């Protein structure tokens, strides 16, 4: 009975949502946004689950923090940033000053922010290793690895963003565990043709124009994690790609991932130029891939569109 | 004209309905057998007979003008046969009403009996004032030879419904001395009169006066069928008085109200939302939100057996077919100890007994589905009623779904339901000896089937979806009622089976539930001052679950925010048995106008190794301040077991669940104004505790792992308020309108005890939303003011007009504040920043629904065409509040715009 109620409610809600057409669409980038964050390497896996010097050496390694920051209407303005690491993933702003460590601060212009950081080595003002606090805040006490929140605060004019990325620390709790590898997109196609980074294809009319990603299924990793009821659970990545454009709209803003039914989707979207008042211009497209376990990457492409 | 005056009366005995406080419900005019109550309900076992008649004084003015009249009266007859009240059902004028009332007040009847015991009843009575030819002068009377006679015989049939009209008077002419015949239970009559032209007059309760002319030949029998036109409503008349109330509040919805309340699509369950104490459910949902309780906390029973799936798929109609119901009793709280398994209210649907006179039926077609109802006697004493309904949205949807090249979209929803009832009882027309033992019973089956198939995909879609669901339930129940003297027992065994199957990609689930239950209620009237009711209520179910699914994150492994991986399949097959039983007892102590009823219900639930045991003591008090005014109050504890499937192992259930509990109290007064107006004001205060909510918190297991109970007994809530019900019933078949005004002033809170779980539920949260760590506050369903006005008016000439107006406070919402964007890069989602928990509301809801019906009555059948228009003035009421993807702005989504629905119904 409850199932029917939920299905009914879900469909009614979807039906109602379908009637809403907000002006601000997630695929249309027009103001200050963070479109993706990646940490190179996406997962630091200690060789042992004991807190040995060898394990600490790995967990405190330096990684490269990258954020894809866009600001189409900012006209290249300066953006102030601060990067913190903190203990509790529920603290989406890293507000708890007693449990946060500032990793970086400065100003940037739109584009990629790249900061080398050593979050695993972060120590709180009371001398506690931040990773230890992360474990204490974790309801699973590190059973599924530790996820340290890295929160990037951007401010430009009256706009402010807090963007959280979880840095994954783990150890081989069950046989077969291996550190996550960063996903890499193999390229995009526009209207069925390869779309190179330096290319500027011409698009004319209302489209819609089909964009696809080159097949990545061979790159999606199989991996194991500790199980609650069994020793290990076998999983396979099902990458998602979020699609963005500086003009027009991409109705299916995100593709891929596995559904509740366990079936992955296809990476195919349609770009719809503005229906009216459009003028010929260069349009930027972003495709941000996520592997579902902390890894992320992106591709940027451009095209010239005429009504 | 020489005038010898004669005023005389004829008892139109077909119309009986019961006055407070008698427990009865009699056959109704127009459809006497079809309207009979289920055997479990009290019935008239002996009608009153007139033993002392007093002739009325013919009004002098009317006499002078040579006027005649038939005065229709409603007589209230006390338990001892004395007339306690007389009201005119329709005014005749010219002093006839006053004269008739004055005479009838002096009548005396034999006591009527309800379920074998004397009880007060009401009868409709027609008093005829006629003018006779003067008697011949004295001395002129001479012995005359025996005159030849003619015979007029036949059957009286109600036009349209074809019900046989019993208790009608048939005569030739207006002569007071004319021979009369009274029709029997099959509507048959035989009249012996002098040959020649007969000006036939048929006087029947609930029908218009029937007049025709027949030429009768000497020593011959003329056979006829007379079709009498019912008075009042186009098709059927349901006049119902109240049975005595032990509960503080019991609201009864008749079939007519259930079918004709505008804006409900004739759905009996949705009609309940027009009653006090029931909050308006959002959108087209029929959820019963009773006195601050949450969906799922009000039990809905069909003749005492719980209905497992109340609504068809996707918020469709309820599985209760309005054609099959006799009435619905709704208890918003403070119900008797024979009821349990609910911490909210209780709805008990009484089904319809098959007609005993002849075959009747109806066919109904509207936007969503089509169905039929048929009822008939099989042999004397055995009757059957059956109905079924099927949707045809599956045939209509393809016409409106897009058909794009390169993509596939197919949605096939199908539902159907059925009800069948076979009644066994005494032969028609037989009247049991007072105090003699007698048994009645019936067997009933009902069920429902819902299927949904959704296929979407194709090369131009980024995902293929294939969803198949199938939900089925069947119930078969028996009912044996035995009465002897002061003892009444009702035994109700039932069995059932439920199936739920879903196939969604790699997720495949097949569940089945086999259930067995019984209820025995014994009522013993020990003396005038003491009545005992006791019994047991047991239920057992055998649940089988077979699931194959990708390992769900959060239950099988620690989740990571973001897109789900493709997970290895798990396959679980498990069986779980659940028992829930109760013993209950209550006693009515009467001291004059005061009735005190203490009761208790002892509950035992056993599922797997878990055993829950508790007592629910309850108390009701009713004080009849006057014949028309009652004060009433109640308090008690109520409990509801968790569903058996919820006891499966953690993290998919919680084997340690206990009873959900509630304290309910109420205090009120009800006032009867005249014969048709009732006013009821009731205040209530309820507390719910240990209610089941989801999820529990994450906890470590003995093996060094972790689990999160899917359900815990952490739900709490509180509600208080005042309910007002002003109801106008139909006094008689000729009464033009009925309706009610319902108003509730209330405050409802909901939440969970303790801190919020540190991890969200893998299967979603089932409970109040947690915002800013606050786990308790206003209920999501809280509506301070709930006003509903319902009225139905018989315009005449087959036209009826109904309206429903609703005005309710908007539902609580939590406002957004937006100091900055909060972005989660791993899930590519934004998070909200909320203001104070549920500190805002949507705008006030107001809506007018109208229903217009036009009926045509033919001799053997009726046809009705109706137009039900929801939201007549197209109010844009807010039903949902959504946010943009960055949680910067709120968007209010209106509900259904103006929606006309046309339907047609044929009955015979």
Summary keywords:
heterodimer, A: 307 residues, mainly beta, Immunoglobulin-like, 2 domains, 5-stranded mixed sheet, 3 helices, 19 strands, globular, B: 908 residues, TolA/TonB C-terminal domain, Maltoporin, Chain A, 22-stranded antiparallel beta barrel, 5 helices, 4% helix, elongated, disordered N terminus
Task: Indicate the topology.
The complex is a heterodimer of chains A (307) and B (908).
Chain A: H1 2-18, E1 33-40, E2 43-45, H2 53-59, E3 63-70, E4 79-86, E5 100-108, E6 111-117, H3 130-137, E7 146-156, E8 159-170, E9 188-190, E10 193-195, E11 202-204, E12 209-213, E13 222-226, E14 232-236, E15 240-245, E16 254-256, E17 268-271, E18 281-290, E19 296-306
Parallel strand pairs in A: 2-8, 11-19
Antiparallel strand pairs in A: 1-3, 3-6, 4-5, 4-7, 7-8, 9-10, 9-12, 12-17, 13-14, 15-16, 15-18, 18-19
Chain B: E1 4-10, E2 16-17, E3 44-46, E4 50-52, H1 60-65, E5 69-77, E6 83-90, H2 96-104, E7 108-109, E8 113-114, E9 117-118, E10 121-132, E11 150-158, E12 169-172, E13 180-182, E14 188-193, E15 196-203, E16 210-216, E17 221-228, E18 251-254, H3 255-260, H4 268-271, E19 278-279, E20 289-290, E21 299-302, E22 305-306, E23 325-331, E24 346-351, E25 360-365, E26 369-379, E27 382-391, H5 393-400, E28 408-424, E29 438-457, E30 465-484, E31 487-504, E32 507-527, E33 530-550, E34 566-567, E35 569-591, E36 594-607, E37 610-624, E38 629-640, E39 660-673, E40 677-693, E41 698-700, E42 706-708, E43 712-728, E44 737-752, E45 776-778, E46 785-796, E47 799-808, E48 812-813, E49 816-824, E50 829-834, E51 840-841, E52 845-857, E53 862-870, E54 878-883, E55 890-894, E56 899-907
Parallel strand pairs in B: 11-17, 21-24
Antiparallel strand pairs in B: 1-10, 2-10, 3-8, 4-7, 5-6, 5-10, 8-9, 11-14, 12-13, 12-15, 15-16, 18-23, 19-20, 21-22, 23-24, 25-26, 25-56, 26-27, 27-28, 28-29, 29-30, 30-31, 31-32, 32-33, 33-35, 35-36, 36-37, 37-38, 38-39, 39-40, 40-43, 41-42, 43-44, 44-45, 44-46, 46-47, 47-52, 48-51, 49-50, 52-53, ...
